[in-house]
């Protein structure tokens, strides 16, 4: 699972890297959704949020296992 996650993250990073900088400031699909930069940044922040949740859950599980 980690290998697949890292591979997919690298693919996304490469695709983002291929975008011309001017594209980042264009509207996404509709103006109400903001620009490409805002949406890409939001995806990255959302991913970090979930990674943090995974770390907390993992620590909680380890603590419960330790107390058994």
Structural commentary:
The chain has helices at residues 2-18, 21-24, 36-66. It has 68 residues and is an all-alpha fold.
Q: Tally the helices: what do you get?
A: 3
Instruction: Determine the fraction of residues in helical runs and give it as a percent range.
Output: over 70%
Residue ranges: pLDDT <50 for 5 or more in a row? none
Distance from N terminus to C terminus (CA atoms, Å) equals 28 Å
Shape: elongated
Rg value: 17 Å
Largest sheet: none
Average pLDDT reading: 94
Q: By helix and strand content, what is the structural category? A: mainly alpha
Strand content: under 5%
Secondary-structure element string: HHH
- How many DSSP-defined strands? 0
Topology:
Blueprint: H1 2-18, H2 21-24, H3 36-66
């Amino acid at each position: 699972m980690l290998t697949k996650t890292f591979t997919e993250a690298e693919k996304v990073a490469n695709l983002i890297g291929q975008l011309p900088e001017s594209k980042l400031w264009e509207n996404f699909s509709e103006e109400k959704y903001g620009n490409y930069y805002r949406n890409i940044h939001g995806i990255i922040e959302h991913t970090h949020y979930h990674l943090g949740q995974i770390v907390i859950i993992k620590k909680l599980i380890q603590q419960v296992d330790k107390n058994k």
